[in-house]
Amino acid sequence: MAYRAGRHFLQIPGPSPVPDRISRAIDAAVIDHRGPNFSDLGLSVLSGMQRIFKTEAPVVIYPSSGTGAWEACLSNALKAGDQVLFYETGQFATLWKQMADRLGIETEFLAGDWRNGVDADRIEARLRQDTKHAIKAVCCVHHETSCGITSDIAAVRQAIDVVGHSALLLVDSISGLASVDYEHDKWGADVTVSGSQKGLMMPPGLGFNALSDRALEAAKNGGSQRSYWDWQEMLASNTSGYFPYTPATTLLYGLREAIAMLEEEGLDNVFSRHQRLGDACREAVAVWDLQTVCQNPNEHSNALTGIMMPEGHDADRVREVILNKFDMSLGTGLGKIKGKAFRIGHLGDINDLTLMGVLCGVEMGLDLAGVPHQSGGVEAAMRFLSR
Ligand SMILES: *Cc1c(COP(=O)(O)O)cnc(C)c1O
After folding, report:
1. Please, what is the average pLDDT of the chain?
2. Binding site membership of 76 for ligand 1 (Cβ less than 6 Å)
3. Are 17 and 349 in contact (CB under 8 A)?
C-alpha cells in the first residue's frame, strides 16, 4: 500500500491512540523478570493500578486481552452451575454472558434495548424474588462501549444491599477506567475487569482484575478449576513485585508511563477533559439532527459517541468513505446495531483540536455518503470549545 502522509486518525473506542511517551517507554530492553531490578517495576504498576481503580484491595495484572480478564473474574469467583444475573446493556454484556454460558454458569439476562443503561430497580426486584440467595453474582458493564452508555454502578450495589442479598457485584469497566470516573471501593464492586487499550492509552495486551475481600473469600472457598487465571498464585508473587510466570515486561514499562501521565494531568482533570470533548461531540450530533444511540442524557459516555443512521443508510458505508477519503477509522456498529450505527471514539490521548479534526472528517463523510443531515455540527462544536 502507498504511503499516506499525515497521521492516521484511529478514532475507534479502543484501541485508542498510543501517545509517544508510552511508545518510547515500551521501547526498552527486556529485563530478567526474576532479577533484582524487576520488583520496583512490578510494585510500581501494581500500586499505581490500585490508585487508578481507587481501591485499597489488590489488583491483578494479566498478559491478556480484556476478554481474558473477564474469564479470570468468572473462573475465580464462580463455578459451573452457579446462578448469575447479567444485564443486557449492549454487545459487550451479551458477549460476557455468552462466555459465562460456555463455562457452564447458569445465566439469566435482564433484557435491555441497547439505548439505556442498567436499571438498578429491575435488579433489586429480581433479587427480592430470590429469597434463598441462589444468585451468586450480578454482572454489569459500567461503560458499554458498543453503544456509548454508562451505568450507575453504585446504584446496583445499593440495589443488592437494600435487599440484603449476598450476591457478588462483578463489573466490566474495560473502556470506562481512566476515561470516566470509576471508584471500585466506594461503589462496592467485588471484581472490576479492565484492559490496557482504552482509557489507559496503552497498546492491547494487559488485562486487570481489581478485587475485594469478599471476592477473594469466594475464590478461596470455591470458583472453578483454574490455573493460569488463579488469583492466589498471582497475589502470592505480587506481594514482592514479581509474577508467577513471565509477565509482559515491555507493556508494564508502558503501563508505568501511562499511570505517570494520568497522575501528572490528575485523574479529575482527565475525566473533565473527556466530559468536555463528549459534550462538544454531542453538540455536533444535535446540530446534524442525528440521534445518539444513548437515549438517556444522564447516561451518555464521554469516551465515545454512538450515532444512529437515518433509516435506509448504512453506517459501515459512511465509515468506509471516511477511511478511504480521510484516513480515519471509526468504530463499527456491533451485534444488534450492525450497519445501523457507527461510533466515534474520543477517549485517551486526545485534545480539542484532535476532536475538531475528527468531527470535520465525520461531517464531510456524511456529505459524501449522502446521509441526510443538517450542516453546521462542526461550527457548533467549535463554538462550544471556544466558549
Ligand atoms: C473492549 C471491550 C471488551 C473486550 O476487550 P478485548 O481486549 O477486546 O478482549 C469488553 N468489554 C468492554 C466494555 C470493552 O470496551
Report:
1. 98
2. no
3. yes
